[in-house]
Structure formats: C-alpha cells, structure tokens
Design brief:
By secondary structure, the chain is α+β, with helices and mostly antiparallel strands. The chain folds into two domains: 290 residues, Guanine Nucleotide Dissociation Inhibitor, domain 2, CATH 3.30.519.10; 99 residues, Guanine Nucleotide Dissociation Inhibitor, domain 1. The protein contains 13 helices and 19 strands. The strands form six sheets. Strands 7-6-15-16-17-14-18 form a seven-stranded mixed β-sheet, with helices on both faces. Strands 4-8-5 form a three-stranded antiparallel β-sheet. A three-stranded antiparallel β-sheet has the order 10-11-12, with no helix packed on it. β6 and β7 form a beta hairpin. α1 runs parallel beside α9 and α3 packs parallel to α13. The longest helix is centred in the middle third of the chain and has 17 residues.
Length: 434
C-alpha cells in the first residue's frame, strides 16, 4: 500500500520521501531471495539442500496474492503505466474443494456443462443466474427482475434462482471470493458486482481471472517506487526509524540516524505506530516447497484452490496459491504453494491441515502467524495515515480498497483513475513541447 501511495502521491505533485527500515522493497509483502534468506528469516537450521537448485533462482512471496485481471490493482498499474516494468502470466486454473476432492471452477460454458460440481438441472439454473448477473446494471432498474440491489439479500437472490447449497458455496466463495458466509444476509448489490468482476476478469484471458507477475510480487512495490522516482520522489532503504516527531498532536517529521526529515503528512504500516492501531485478528500462512504439481489439478504449473468454510466446518475459507519455475520464482521443476486462512482457534496449524493434506509430499515448510492490525487513528488530526495489515484473501481487491480509503482521508476527495491519467498527461505533455 505504501509503495503504491508514494507513486500516486508523487504523480499528484506531492514531495515524497519514502523510508524503509528493511533492506528490500515492500515490507510485509516482499518476495525473499535467495532461498538461503528465507531459511534465515524463519530460523530454519542449516542451509537449503542441493536438490533445491540455486538459491538465486528463488523469489518467495511472504504474502501470497494474485491480481484480478479486471480488478482495481491492474487498473492502477495500467493508469500509472507501471506495467512497463512488469510482465504478467495468467494463473492456469482455479479449483474448489468439495467433499474431500478438488474440482476445477468452470471457466467456460463448455466446462460448466461438463463439470461434476453440479447436476444437469442445477447447471441450467446456475446458467440462468449467471446470465442475470451479466446483464445486471445497477443504473438500469429494467435489469433487476424484481430484485432491489440495496435491500434484497443475496440469500433471497439464490432462492429466486432455486440454487442448492453446493452451488451457493461455490458461487459465494470461489466466484464472489467471500471468506465467510456473512454476505448472505446483506444486500445483494456487492455480491453481484463481485461475481461480475470475476467473470469479466475471466473473459480477458480465459484460463482463470488471476494474473501473477514474473519474478514474484516484490516486483509490484518496486514498480511503484520507480514511478515515484520519475516524479521526483526519494527512496531510502535500510533506514532505521527512531521516532515519529509530533507537535501539538500533529506529525511534523520523522527522526532517523539523528536527523529529522520534516513532513506534513505521513503514511506508514502498523508496525511503525503500535500505539495507534488495534489487533483485529490473526492469519496463518504456510509456505510449502514441492517437487510436484498439486494432485488433481491436471499438472497445472500455477493455480488457486479455495476450501469453502462449510466443507471443513469452519467460519473462514482456506486458500492455496501455487506458482512455480514458470514464473521465475523457483528453481526448475519446483513449485511453491502457500496456504493461508484466518485463525479461529488456539491451534492454527491444525486449522490449515485440510490445505496441507492436498499438497503432500511437502519438502520444507515455513509457518508464520501474523497479527492483523487496523488503525485506531484515522489521521484527521495527527495527519498520520496507517494502512491495514494484509488479510487472508488471495487477491488485491481489499488492499486497493484500503489504498483508496487512505487517499480519501489524506486528500479529502475520492481516488479517481481518470484524474490520475490526466495529471500524468500534463507532466509528460509539457516535456514534449520544450
């Protein structure tokens, strides 16, 4: 979030100084290379075995996420032209867990008809539902068919199309990508928009709605850091933060190595301001290195698997993101699968077992349990704007919502992609005239 905001703020004509106490870009969401560093980071004894290939061939994400092809982050990348610095690959398939087995989430009509996720009559009803969603336009009441987007619950919409529990599970969790079932009793508008986002993203590339950058997610913050630099932003890595200097309740600077950098506004993640955030939960993530593709995924070299909470008697879904040497993030013939979920009990490792069972045999695995923080200080007075910790979702939509929220609190106006495009044209346009 911080790197994207430093890029956006630089384009907006603000003077930006970006400091990071780490030696790499991206803080919590970095990609770690070489593999030796991952062993060190998780305090695993010894060094990686020779079978792991060259340490330099590895770029392991600490926080796994994919990009929705038609989602907000891709829009931010396109509008800021950060896409120049990145290459993306489509993730080969999305799978959903049902009754102990995994099934491909159908990505075409032909796949849907052939899929054993639903019976024949169920398929017809589901198809009607998808056609309804595709035609749904919140600005055109003729497309509502008696549904009030702001009042009718999603549960009632499913009833209207007579969809069974299995289809509801798969639609809410694998298409609308909800982590829990709370959405069922909320107005249906957001769910319909989420399913539209999924199908529009899928329509762009056909295999799945997800994209992933070559060389790992660490490329994203670096791309936005470059954008910031083009617009005069300054970046300092390895810069210890000693103190955030506050006068009369308002931030006036940041002290580092005895010097104070003065500022009017400050953006940071929760780890820098523990007294201004509150813990809202925990996420467990397990990074697994495999020498084989995941069983029953048709040997895909990348995929996502969603285990809906209902299937394993939980409140939150469990996710698996898998990528491989095809994405320049692992040595030849190796695969990285990262399982994650929201912690619900005192034994998080047991909670994530259904995912790990799908991945066996696992070579080394790296387990992390992270606290989730949300700001208690929204920055109105202090002008300190704090991002939220990355949640368990497997794409960047909630992260982008947070970026837009911080932008609005800082600038007092909504973040507008078109506006950003115009500002960029102004700057580049002037250069051409000289």
């Amino acid at each position: 979030q911080e790197c994207i905001l430093s890029g956006i703020m630089s384009v907006n004509g603000k003077k930006v100084l970006h400091m990071d106490r780490n030696s790499y870009y991206g803080g919590e969401s970095a990609s770690i290379t070489p593999l030796e560093d991952l062993y060190k980071r998780f305090n695993l004894p010894g060094t990686p075995p020779e079978s792991m290939g060259r340490g330099r061939d590895w770029n392991v994400d600490l926080i796994p996420k994919f990009l929705m092809a038609n989602g907000q982050l891709v829009k931010m990348l396109l509008y800021t032209e950060v896409t120049r610095y990145l290459d993306f690959k489509v993730i080969e398939g999305s799978f959903v867990y049902k009754g102990g087995k995994i099934y491909k989430v159908p990505s075409t009509e032909a796949e849907a008809l052939a899929s054993s996720l639903m019976g024949l009559f169920e398929k017809r009803r589901f198809r009607k539902f998808l056609v309804y969603v595709a035609n749904f336009d919140e600005n055109d009441p003729r497309t509502f068919e008696g549904v009030d987007p702001k009042k009718t619950t999603m549960r009632d919409v499913y009833k209207k199309f007579d969809l069974g529990q299995d289809v509801i599970d798969f639609t809410g969790h694998a298409l609308a990508l909800y982590r829990t079932d709370d959405y069922l009793d909320q107005p249906c508008q957001e769910t319909i928009n989420r399913i539209k986002l999924y199908s529009e993203s899928l329509a762009r590339y056909g295999k799945s709605p997800y994209l992933y950058p070559l060389y790992g997610l660490g490329e994203l913050p670096q791309g936005f850091a470059r954008l910031s630099a083009i617009y005069g932003g300054t970046y300092m890595l390895n810069k210890p933060i000693e103190e955030i200097v506050i006068e009369n309740g308002k931030v006036v600077g940041v002290k580092s190595e005895g010097e104070v950098a003065r500022c009017k506004q400050l953006i940071c993640d929760p780890s820098y301001v523990s007294d201004r955030v509150t813990k809202v939960g925990q996420v467990i993530r397990v990074i697994c290195i495999l020498s084989h593709p995941i069983k029953n995924t048709n040997d895909a070299n990348s995929c996502q698997i969603i285990i809906p909470q209902n299937q394993v008697n939980r409140k939150s879904d469990i996710y698996v993101c898998m990528i491989s040497s095809a994405h320049n993030v692992a040595a030849q013939g190796k695969y990285i699968a990262i399982a994650s979920t929201t912690v619900e009990t005192a034994d998080p490792e047991k909670e994530i077992m259904p995912a790990l069972d799908l991945l066996e045999p696992i070579e080394p695995k790296f387990v992390s349990i992270s606290d989730l923080f949300a700001p208690t200080d929204l920055g109105t007075e202090s002008q300190i704007f704090i991002s939220r910790t990355y949640d368990a979702t497997t794409h960047f939509e909630t992260t982008c919502d947070d970026i837009k929220d911080i932008y609005k609190r800082m600038m007092g106006s909504e973040f507008d992609f078109e506006e950003m495009k115009r500002k960029k044209n102004d700057i580049y346009g002037e250069e051409e005239q000289q």
